[in-house]
Design goal:
11 helices; mainly alpha; Tetracycline Repressor, domain 2; disordered N terminus; Arc Repressor Mutant, subunit A
């Protein structure tokens, strides 16, 4: 077997190990999952798991950090759409709807619960998750709102405060309901209506008149 084939095999093994680990961590929690069970579900040897990941903590950390990469697409969407918008109402509605859909993905909700539940055991990881997901999104929103204010499309002195208001108006109630009740936040039509109303309230405060 050549080097390329061996490298591809190792990457494939790592992928199935991550998938199995995510399934078990979300189903049983961190303490309820063993490396042996991960190996069994992945269909690899326990030694193969340890070849890729030194221990369970390393594997858990890798999964949480990888999950925050999903924020990249939303942040890119923000920076593509908002700064040069010709229709701030329509584009903010689009952003709000996408924001809800992004955050309320069932697997991400489960992971958020797991990270919060393990924050006492992994405080640095919980902080990293916050910095790379919620905080990064707020920073991107603040940057975009600042640019819209410079164009005279929004009226604000504190872009970061406005970003926080927007985020809570959009996410607050649906995210709380999903986190505590184990749902996805409600039917899509209701979520779209919620997002649109959040934008209406936001613009009642921040739109130029």
């Amino acid at each position: 077997m050549g080097k390329t084939a061996r490298r591809a095999g190792r990457m494939a093994s790592a992928g199935v190990i991550r998938e199995a680990a995510m399934t078990l961590f979300l189903r049983r929690g961190y303490l309820g999952t063993s490396m042996e069970e991960i190996a069994t579900l992945a269909g690899v040897s326990k030694q193969t798991v340890y070849t890729h990941f030194a221990d369970k903590e390393t594997l858990f950390t890798d999964l949480v950090r990888s999950a925050t990469d999903r924020v990249d697409d939303f942040v890119q969407h923000l920076t593509d759409v908002l700064p040069d918008t010709d229709d701030v109402v329509a584009d903010l509605r689009q952003v709000a709807r996408r924001y809800l859909a992004q955050v309320l993905q069932p697997e991400l909700l489960q992971l958020r619960r797991l990270v919060i539940g393990e924050a006492g055991r992994f405080p640095d990881l919980a902080r990293t998750y916050y910095e790379r997901a919620p905080e990064r999104t707020l920073a991107a929103l603040a940057s975009c709102f600042g640019l819209l204010a410079e164009r005279g499309l929004l009226r604000l002195d504190d872009p970061a405060l406005a970003a926080g208001h927007f985020a809570y108006l959009v996410l607050g109630a649906p995210l709380d309901r999903a986190m505590f009740c184990g749902t996805d936040g409600g039917p899509p039509a209701d979520l779209d209506r919620h997002a649109d109303e959040a934008v209406r309230v936001f613009l009642a405060r921040y739109a130029t008149r």
